[in-house]
Amino acid sequence: RNSNRVPAASNGEQSELLLARVGRAALALPDVDDETEDARGIRGASAANGLVFRLLFLWAVVIAAMTLYGAMV
Description:
The chain has helices spanning 11-27, 37-72. It contains 2 helices and no strands. Helix content is 73%, strand content 0%. The chain has one domain (11-72). The protein starts with 10 loop residues before the first helix and ends with a helix. By secondary structure, it is mostly helical.
């Protein structure tokens, strides 16, 4: 046996890692030259905030459409 092996991640840990990778990809932040870590964090938070509001707006439209459709039936 190789005692230096890293133990495999549990299903929960794998799910968290996948969610983190998908979230980073959804933000699609391009690298900017001469950007500090703090500035990148602020830019990332702003992008995440925008993504959340776009998704909330999308869900509001979907729920409104379903409500209107239900009222017509």
